[in-house]
Specification:
Number of strands: 16
Strand order of the largest sheet: 13-3-15-14
Mean pLDDT: 88
Shape: extended
Distance between the termini: 33 Å
Strand content: 15-25%
Largest sheet: 4 strands, antiparallel
Length: 602
């Protein structure tokens, strides 16, 4: 039990959940995760990994195990954010055990008994142990004896065994990650040709005169994209139309706000206690007794910026007045303040700091007000009951504004400024297009009635869903070809940039130092960039169809330098190899069709 007490003293949630996001999900971006998630699984599954359904009960068991470890660490009751961290940690364990490690083993990567010993008590001890204060001696140094002692003690202590086994599991998982990443990075080697080409592309610079004629935004009625063209493009590019499951919704919100009567009531209360503030012997007790939303802390010193985060008028008063000064009552909408300057000092880094006792109270809706808002929501819900047509009719009849949220995904928790809105998201995914909800009340403040206006299933988007986007893409392709052909016809026979500019009634621009390499981050139109670097010096180009306009150019000079060296090219190749390792797990997840439906349950 002494060891468990030491764990409680030295560790918090972050150290307990060793496999938390900071350790393993460094190779996953939120966008990659979202692309990897799928949407259809058993009603009672939280997801599917590598073809294996992950039941709610099994996943909850994993979460409970990590929760118990956090309890052993003395965390007590976890807040919502900590609970989410635990669930994310448990999910990552599922991903790694069922997907990453099997794939690593298929690639020939394994951990032998000797290697596992080396990671815990041998020649390559894991940082999870060597940097863990639990294994430090009285002088604060890492002690191998402590590792052996705790490992042995865990055999006879169920609670300690839970912590120890979780630690070992995380160490082995991390070793699989390290070895797989090393294998991948070692295989990603730049060939000599690639290195020399990279050097050349970075050292060759081009000076250019050019003309750009933008396509503009006016629609060209002579360009018609047919349904057959759209269908053909869709059939040939289906892999580019993969999507996560989502819903289009509209919703109305009846936000319960304090009435003028509620605000006046608080104003009267604040006025009644204001006189006692100046006379109070103990401002800390006064603020607590009178339900101030801000407590007085004797050791807290405010910067002006921090005070402005509370209220600008409060900040101005504190900034301009000396110790002992007391403000009048300050009203800011439904909020009321008064403040006393308690102290002042200078800080070498932060400048002038002020100590202040600040009373703050915000008017809250009374029962009468709350009931009135709920009645409004009830009336709308009754009028909108029946379907989307009734919902739209109720908007007009009752003069209510409807918010739109296209492509709502299953994990969304916030609707605009409304937090904790998972109930709305769950409802949307449990209903079909055209459904209208009953009242959903969030935080006893927001009454929401929602309607599902569209359903987008996981997988390949339907032709109907993407046809307009394809139509626009094909339109601009045809527009660029037409505009470029028109320019070519106008300047036929002209041989100089000046003649062409005069004919087109535009001016000639210049750009120096253009290189083909992406490392220069020039943000140039790719079609223009490629044509410039391939063109002969001194020759006026034919019109080039770019993304936003038609280009005509002449390379006026081309220089070859030596500022980008072989070392630079090799460094870039190494960085690229390291970057590509970040895509290992997202790619595995995408290929395996990982489904994540935790949002349905948590």
């Amino acid at each position: 039990m002494a060891v468990l007490e030491k764990i409680r003293v030295k560790f918090g949630l972050g150290a307990t959940i060793i496999i938390a996001l900071g350790l393993l999900s460094f190779i996953i971006s939120p966008d990659d995760l979202e692309r990897a998630f799928q949407s259809m699984s058993s009603k009672y599954d939280v997801g599917k990994v590598a073809g294996k359904s992950i039941s709610y009960d099994d996943f909850k068991s994993d979460v409970d195990k990590l929760t118990e470890i956090s309890r052993l660490s003395g965390m007590g009751t976890l807040n919502a954010q900590q609970q989410e961290q635990l669930r994310e940690a448990a999910w990552m364990q599922v991903i790694y055990k069922n997907l990453f490690i099997p794939n690593a083993e298929k690639a020939g990567i394994n951990l032998g008994v000797d290697e596992k010993v080396a990671l815990t008590t041998g020649s390559m001890i894991s940082p999870m142990i060597s940097r863990n204060p639990l294994f430090f001696d009285e002088d604060g140094n890492f002690s191998l004896d402590k590792v052996v002692e705790i490992g042995q003690a865990s055999k006879n202590n169920p609670e300690l065994r839970l912590y120890w086994e979780n630690l070992l599991e995380n160490i082995y998982l991390q070793q699989y990650v390290n070895k797989y990443n090393s294998l991948f990075a070692s295989a990603s080697v730049a060939a000599p040709f690639e290195v020399s080409k990279n050097i050349e592309e970075n050292n060759v610079t081009n000076d250019v005169e050019f003309i750009m004629l933008p396509y503009g935004y006016e629609q060209d009625s002579t360009i018609v994209v047919t349904d057959a063209q759209i269908k053909e493009y869709y059939d040939n590019h289906k892999k580019f139309f993969q999507q996560v499951g989502s819903r289009d919704i509209e919703y109305v919100v009846f936000e319960t706000k304090p009435s003028e009567k509620d605000i006046e009531s608080v104003k009267d209360f604040v006025a009644g206690i204001y006189g006692g503030f100046a006379e109070a012997d103990n401002v800390k007790t006064f603020l607590a007794r009178n339900r101030s939303e801000l407590a007085y802390e004797e050791d807290h010193w405010y910067t002006n910026t921090e005070l402005r985060g509370i209220n600008s008028a409060v900040a101005d008063f504190v900034d301009k007045n000396n110790v002992g000064a007391i403000s009048d009552v300050i009203q800011d909408g439904a909020k009321f303040f008064f403040v006393k300057v308690m102290g002042q000092k200078e800080d070498a880094d932060k400048g002038t700091l002020k100590q202040a006792a600040i009373f703050q109270m915000t008017a809250q809706p009374g029962n009468e007000t709350a009931n009135a808002y709920y009645l409004q929501a009830t009336n709308f819900a009754a009028a909108a009951h029946g379907g989307l047509a009734e919902y739209r009719k109720a908007l007009d009849t009752l003069g209510v504004y409807s918010h739109s949220y296209p492509r709502l995904t299953e994990g969304v928790e916030n609707l605009g400024s409304i937090n904790n809105a998972k109930e709305v998201t769950r409802w949307a995914f449990e209903n079909k297009a055209g459904a209208v909800s009953n009242i959903m009340t969030i935080d006893n403040k927001y009454h929401v009635i929602a309607a599902v206006t569209g359903v987008h299933e996981e997988g390949t988007a339907s032709l109907n869903e993407v046809s307009e986007a394809i139509r626009q893409q094909l339109y601009y392709q045809q527009l660029s070809q037409k505009k470029t052909q028109e320019v070519a016809e106008k300047i036929a026979g002209l041989t100089t940039m000046e003649e062409i500019a005069e004919k087109l009634n535009v001016s000639v621009s210049t750009r120096n130092g253009i290189t083909f390499s992406s490392t220069s981050n020039q943000s140039l139109d790719n079609a223009f960039l490629g044509a410039v670097c391939a063109a002969e010096v001194g020759q006026v180009s034919k019109p080039i169809a770019g993304t936003i306009g038609t280009y005509i150019f002449k390379v006026t000079g081309r220089d070859t330098g030596s500022f980008y060296t072989e070392d630079d090219a090799k460094t870039a190749a190494t960085q690229y190899a390291m970057y590509t390792t970040q895509g290992i797990l997202p790619t595995m997840m995408q290929e395996a069709g990982v489904e994540d439906h935790r949002a349905r349950f948590f």
